[in-house]
Amino acid sequence: MISKKHNFGAGPCILPSTVMEQAAQAVLDWNSNGLSILEVSHRSVEFESVITKTQLLVRELLNVPDSYSVLFLQGGASTQFSMVPLNFLKKGRKACYLDTGYFAKKAIKEARLFGDVEIVASSRDKAYCYIPDNYELSHGTAYLHLTSNNTIEGTEMFAFPKVAVPVVCDMSSDIFSREINVRDFDLIYAGAQKNMGPAGLTLVIAKNSFLDSVNCELPSMSDYRIYRDNNSMFNTPPVFSIYVSMLNLIWLKEMGGVKEIEKLNISKARLLYGEIDRNSLFDGLANLAHRSRMNVTFRAKDERTGAAFFELASERGMVGIRGYRTVGGFRVSLYNALPLESVEALVVLMREFEQMVACANTVSHLESVR
Ligand SMILES: *Cc1c(COP(=O)(O)O)cnc(C)c1O
């Protein structure tokens, strides 16, 4: 076993140690066939079976209907910010966006390069601490774009709009963490590095009829139909990322699938939010109803106390808990592979820290009255 830190990082995320071990072995000698996974042809029968198996696992774990394609791309979720409008924002139509945070804003900025974009609702007024749900879509809407989990602000959508227009969703940071109904969406995209595998792979799940609605020529690498028609092998796919994602999805299936991991994710989140609410030193940042189960954001009531807690946590081998630079405070990510024990260790430390601060305050109070 490898000795490990408690990794609360927001991405690339923690992966199960068994997956790491299998991946390490495959780099040295894949399936004992005398080749490394890094040097096999993506056209080999062996790798074709990997890509097929990974697609099947995605279908099985998320209950993807047959009328949808599962595609493997590169360029991260950020490339999807422009690829979606390039494919679907036609002349004379409008794309509607929900502005729920840092990544939604980035998606909006890219879409504006391609056509008319309307922000139908925004939670910017309150530092993105909630998910707005009161909005209307006008005629001629090409699609509505959502971000299911706002990785930086720590908010998550627990209900998705039932609307008459196609729905596109950035699920980078909560895909495979909870059950979803794929039929609620026309296109889902996610950078793999937050719950699926290592960086380098982007997962797209798209309704075929939505892809067929694209009726113009596009650069091949930006055309979803090309990926579909070539089984995601129009060019060299990210072989290693797909392989490790496959291992991770096998692990997830063995854990009981998305349904079971969701239960575990709920208990991890409950435990940590419970302590944030109980502990006199910290405040949660997100609205109660929209608290993310994947990225928990909070801050210390007192800045110096916060700095001291960072130090103590890193002494105890806890990494990745610093909030994003635009938000500050703490962000603790609880992705699928993060064990409950890591959350327990953090909660114990928060309690211990509260007592240490109370003692220190008593001592300094006694000194001041002496
Ligand atoms: C991390 C993240 C992105 C950016 O993903 P890249 O793969 O780095 O481009 C986009 N959206 C969300 C919700 C994210 O969490």
Automatic annotation (TrEMBL):
Its cofactor is pyridoxal 5'-phosphate. SUPFAM superfamilies: PLP-dependent transferases. Keywords: Amino-acid biosynthesis, Aminotransferase, Cytoplasm, Pyridoxal phosphate, Pyridoxine biosynthesis, Serine biosynthesis, Transferase. The keyword Kinase does not apply. Its main location: cytoplasm. Binds 1 pyridoxal phosphate per subunit. GO terms for cellular component: cytoplasm. GO terms for molecular function: O-phospho-L-serine:2-oxoglutarate aminotransferase activity; pyridoxal phosphate binding. InterPro entries: Aminotrans_V_dom, Aminotrans_V_PyrdxlP_BS, Pser_aminoTfrase, PyrdxlP-dep_Trfase, PyrdxlP-dep_Trfase_major, PyrdxlP-dep_Trfase_small. It catalyses: O-phospho-L-serine + 2-oxoglutarate = 3-phosphooxypyruvate + L-glutamate; 4-(phosphooxy)-L-threonine + 2-oxoglutarate = (R)-3-hydroxy-2-oxo-4-phosphooxybutanoate + L-glutamate. It is found in: Cytoplasm. The modification N6-(pyridoxal phosphate)lysine is found at residue 194. Its EC number is 2.6.1.52. One of its GO terms (biological process) is pyridoxine biosynthetic process. L-glutamate binds at residue 43. Pyridoxal 5'-phosphate binds at residues 77-78, 103, 151, 170, 193, 235-236. Pathway: Cofactor biosynthesis; pyridoxine 5'-phosphate biosynthesis; pyridoxine 5'-phosphate from D-erythrose 4-phosphate: step 3/5; Amino-acid biosynthesis; L-serine biosynthesis; L-serine from 3-phospho-D-glycerate: step 2/3. Gene3D superfamilies: Aspartate Aminotransferase, domain 1, Type I PLP-dependent aspartate aminotransferase-like (Major domain). Residues 7-346 form the Aminotransferase class V domain. Belongs to the class-V pyridoxal-phosphate-dependent aminotransferase family. SerC subfamily. Homodimer. Catalyzes the reversible conversion of 3-phosphohydroxypyruvate to phosphoserine and of 3-hydroxy-2-oxo-4-phosphonooxybutanoate to phosphohydroxythreonine. This is Phosphoserine aminotransferase.
